[in-house]
Amino acid sequence: MAMTFGIHVGHLGGPLQEMRRLWRFADAAGFDWFSVSDHFQESPPQGGDLDCYEAISTMTAAAMDTRRVRIGALVFCIGYRNPGLLAKALCSIDQLAGGRVECGIGAGWHEIEYRSFGIPFPSIGVREDQLEEYAQALRLLFDQKVASFAGKHYQLNDGRCNPKPMQPRLRIWIGGAGEKRTLRAAARYADGWNVPYQSPEVWKAKNAVLDGWCEKEGRDPRAIMRTVNVGFYMGADERGAARHEAMLKQQWGAQLEQRQGFLRGTPKAAIDMVAAYRDAGVERLNIAFRQGPYDWEALHAFADDVLPAFGGRR
């Protein structure tokens, strides 16, 4: 099976017309996926003064403006919305999109953002408990005519989520790399797993942990799609590559010591790195952006030179 590709916007800073152009490009250029992040202010934090569009409304616009790509979020923070509210929104967008919506969820991490908006930020153990309950509640709301769930953090009492998704099963993704809880939750409840900005070697090790959890939970590991988000800092040529290298250091700074999942250099270097992800077991690789404006020469070079090397459409 050929590796597929997606585009992800990790900070919805716009400009809005640039984002709109980006999801239209994904739809036309051979990508299979377009996803947004779920933040109220920029991530990584850069002072709080940059624009940041809301995720559900952005997904709706992308769904209405495209015809082919799957539309998702990597990932919705479970602390920001009641699961019933999120299920209702996504079922509505799925109707608008003709059955192309998918749902990614995560335990949440951006403490500054929580505090800024007065949202409780419990310990990671509590957030992981919430993640497991949230996934179960969503599955019931998507699939069952009447949904009831009695959890510690979330409850459904004869909940009715109509209309249902257009597709037979709206996929639930779980994002994150935590080996003790997050990957266990993915093995139990997810249709897909995603982790961002990890090197092929680290991703492969995390993927093996997920396989181990699938074995312990009695889950067929083939039932969970495996994906990665990689930061897009590739240039169409050497000059563009140098410009993106400076941007990478400006945007990520000290975090570059912990994160190695970035496409850098020219298309030839990108092909080598994508091949390493493919060999590690990645089924879909999403190139991830911060705020625009985007480098359209580099994007076209990726679509024209890298996608065809892995069976994508030219």
Indicate the overall shape.
globular
Share in β-strands: 15-25%
CATH architecture: Alpha-Beta Barrel
* Computed CA radius of gyration, to the nearest angstrom: 19 Å
* Strand tally: 12
What's the number of domains?
A: 1
| SSE series | EHEHEEHEHHEEEHEHEHEHEH
Our measurement of the CA-to-CA distance between the termini, rounded to an integer number of angstroms, reads 17 Å
Structural class: alpha/beta
* CATH H level, superfamily name: Luciferase-like domain
How many helices? The count is 10
Provide a quick synopsis of the model.
With 314 residues, the chain is α/β, with parallel strands linked by helices. It has 10 helices and 12 strands. Strands 1, 2, 3, 4, 5, 8, 9, 10, 11 and 12 form a 10-stranded parallel β-sheet that branches. Strands 6-7 form a two-stranded antiparallel ribbon.
